[in-house]
Design a protein that fits this description.
Blueprint: H1 5-13, H2 29-51, H3 58-70, H4 75-87, H5 91-109, H6 115-128, E1 136-144, H7 151-163, E2 167-172, E3 175-180, H8 185-202, E4 209-217, E5 219-220, E6 235-236, H9 238-249, E7 255-257, H10 259-265, E8 271-273, E9 279-281
Parallel strand pairs: 4-7
Antiparallel strand pairs: 1-3, 1-4, 2-3, 5-6, 7-9, 8-9
């Protein structure tokens, strides 16, 4: 199972400065790999905090600034810093971070910022302009990818979403989120989830886990979404926090849904109980076997929980 926010905090708390400090490790692939893993964990940690709407202390902002100064070409970290500053209402500083990064990329490598980072700036400016967001019912598809995808795999994953009428709203580190609105949104989201899981298991990635949660969000701006990178405050609401809790609790190799999604799709999908207000989709032969290898049993009832939402 992918670590929770508390587990990420505990793991990163064990990090004690540069690896093998005082020893020459030039060219050692092991140190490079551990450095990369440390950065990925930091990205996951900040991504979880932002997705949950948690406050980010000043010390974390300062640390992010230092990390982006050392890794100016790591646009995921830069995007997280922009999002964090924007969350705190520090919009001018967020734009300054973007301009500094753009100048560094152009000077050192002759590159423009990636489309996802550009979309962040556009979303930030649109939000500052005071665009009105309206409450809407959505289905959210979240995917944890155990490894970073190459370009072809990432494009295929996004295409699975768009083929079902969904929109990829952000990709932070190894987590992707897509949103589906309108008629049959839960059915389309679950169909996309099945196709993505089929692709990932067939590629030998059993640690992949997917959730589909549905309900109302307080706001959604579809024209601010992009196929790569976070795009600022595209959507928010309590349902996002509930969805994150289900996402953290999901098992590898499974598609987990909340009660509202189960209720909307139970007429055509088989599920089994996975705990409080959670069910797992029973994968058929077309989806390939689950990570556990166990033959699932269909459940035609919702999870037994006093906290289950009313029908």
């Amino acid at each position: 199972m992918h670590p929770s926010g508390k587990e990420l905090d505990a793991a990163l708390g064990l990090w004690r400065g540069p690896l093998l400090e005082g020893i020459r490790t030039d060219g050692w692939p092991e140190t490079a790999a551990l450095h990369e893993e440390h950065l990925l964990l930091k990205e996951d940690q900040l991504g979880c905090r932002l997705a949950a709407g948690a406050a980010v202390p000043k010390s974390v902002v300062d640390e992010l600034r230092a990390m982006t100064a050392r890794e100016p070409g790591r646009e995921t970290l830069v995007g997280l810093l922009i999002d964090t500053l924007a969350r705190q209402g520090r919009y001018a500083e967020a734009e300054c971070v973007y301009r500094t990064t753009a100048a560094t990329l152009a000077e050192r490598w002759g590159l423009d910022p990636a489309p996802g980072l550009q979309a962040r700036l556009e979303g930030l400016r649109a939000f500052r302009a005071g665009e009105t967001l309206h409450p809407v019912d959505v289905a959210l598809l979240s995917v944890f990818r155990p490894i970073d995808d190459d370009g072809a795999a990432a494009a295929r994953l996004c295409r699975r979403v768009t083929d079902q009428g969904g929109v990829v709203v952000w990709r932070i580190a190894r987590v992707l989120m897509a949103v589906f609105t309108g008629a049959q949104r839960q059915d389309r989201a679950v169909d996309a989830a099945r196709r993505i899981m089929h692709d990932r298991l067939a590629a030998g990635l059993p640690e992949t886990r997917i959730t589909v949660t549905s309900g109302p969000v307080d706001g959604f701006r579809p024209d601010n979404a992009a196929t790569a990178g976070a795009t600022g405050p595209v959507l928010w609401g309590r349902m996002l926090v509930d969805g994150l809790e289900i996402f953290v609790a999901a098992r590898p190799g499974t598609i987990t849904v909340n009660h509202a999604t189960w209720q909307a799709t139970r007429h055509r999908m088989a599920y089994r109980s996975a705990g409080e207000d959670r069910l797992e989709l029973v994968l058929d032969d077309c989806d390939t076997t689950s990570a556990s290898g166990a033959a699932p049993r269909a459940a035609s009832h919702p999870p037994t929980s006093a906290a289950r939402p009313a029908d």
